[in-house]
Each structure stands twice: as structure tokens, then as C-alpha cells.
Amino acid sequence: MHLARLWDSSRRTDGGYSLEGLTNDHRVMGVVSKELRKIGKRSMKTIFGRKKIKKDGSEGKITAIEPVEILQREDRELWICYSSLDSMSTLKLYESLKSKLERKPWTFDGCPRGSLYDFYEEYWCPFGAILVKMETAGMLVDRAYLSEIEKVAVAQRKLAADKFRKWASKYCPDAKYMNVNSDTQIRQLFFGGIENRYNPHHHIFSLQSSFWVSRFCVFFIIHLSLREQRFLYVY
């Protein structure tokens, strides 16, 4: 789904990049006909899912899917329809995203280089081919050495996260408690109160936002606050 990521890199928390999520989003499929938009990708669980049968013969709450080998034999016609719909959805998704990227300019050092689709063909297509080869052939790894440098990397990541929180807390005091791995919290810190030019239904990111914190984190925050002799209000 490289085309989708190049078109909109913020969909991770707004629909995602799965085939089902993209083809059922009118913002993504807006350039194709309404008839084709209605036949977006449907999950295997929706089509082939069956309720598990309890010991007393009644249907349970859990939905299960048979192995692919069984589905291909026992639900052959339905499987063919499912596979065909996947192919149609993928093709229409490609056509829609290609059209969108062709309308977005690609500029490098102030010089126009074409469209974002030209960028995709020049850089991301070869990159995708390399990833496929790596996945197919694999690569040799020194597991012992990797285990050692993993410890170093984890320690360095913690130092970098603490340094980032310390810097961010100069501008927003509560940033010292933020989760630096949260895209939502990072977006709130950098773009809170700024107009969102890509989403006409949400013109401005809210200046303030509340985030759910686990019970353990609440106790940890209270401990830090008491140590620093500060008052903390937890809602």
C-alpha cells in the first residue's frame, strides 16, 4: 500500500492502510464511479466466518474461519467471488490513488520534478522490489551480536525518549508524562491548534487533548509528582 502511504501518511489512526480500510473509504475511492465504490473489499471473517457451536448445539459468540484449504474446496464458488472482488478492489484502488498522486506536485530543492506518482515510480517501486527479494531470499544475521547490540539500542532509545520529553516539557509541562511512541500524542504536541489543510471536516487540531493512561502509569505519575513536591490532578 505504498501509494496510499505516499498520498496520506496519517491514516494509521484514521482508517489504516488495509485493502478493506482503503477501498471502503470514500475519500480514497472518490475518483471511481459510485457503483464500484459500493463493492469494496470484504474481510474473510465477514464472508466465511461461522459461529462456533457450543456443546449443547447452540451458536456461541466467537466467530471462527476454517483453514484456507478447506474454504477453497467446500466453498469454492464463494471463494472465487471473494478472490475476484479482491482483484477488482485492488485495481480500482490503484487507479484512484494514481490519479490523486498525479495531481500532487513533487518539488526538490525548489525545483519541480514532476508529480508524486513520478516519485513513486522512480524510488518506491524499486524499493518495493528490493523488499520482496529480501523477504523471499532472507538475509544472514549474527544472532549473538544482534542480541548484544539490541541491549545497547534499547538503552539509547530510553535516553533519547527522556531527552525528548525534557525538551518538550519546556513548552508543555505535562509532556514529561507523554508516550513518545504514540502518533496521536506526537501529533497533538506538534500540531495542536494548527489548521488541518488535508481534512475539510476537521479544520483545526484541538489545542488541548486528553489521553487515557493505564492505572500503572497513574501511580507512576503520582509517585513522580510527590517526589517533586508538586500537586497533580488526575481525572
Structure description:
This protein is mostly helical. The chain is built from ten helices and four strands. The strands form two sheets. The chain has a two-stranded antiparallel ribbon with strand order 1-2. Strands 3-4 form a two-stranded antiparallel ribbon. Strand 1 (50-53) and strand 2 form a beta hairpin. The two termini are 39 Å apart. Mean pLDDT is 81; it is low at 218-235.
Strand content: 5-15%
Number of strands: 4
Q: Summarize the main sheet.
A: 2 strands, antiparallel
The whole-angstrom Rg is 24 Å
Low-confidence stretches: 218-235
Structural classification: mainly alpha
Calculate the mean pLDDT score and round it.
81
Helix content: 40-55%
Count of DSSP H/I helices: 10
Q: Please tell me what the overall shape is.
A: extended
SSE topology:
Layout: H1 2-7, H2 19-23, H3 34-37, H4 44-48, E1 50-53, E2 59-64, H5 68-74, H6 76-102, E3 105-108, E4 111-115, H7 116-137, H8 143-168, H9 183-191, H10 215-227
Antiparallel strand pairs: 1-2, 3-4
Helix pairs in contact: 5-6
Which key features would you list for this structure?
single chain; 235 residues; mainly alpha; two-stranded antiparallel sheet; 10 helices; 53% helix; 8% strand; disordered C terminus
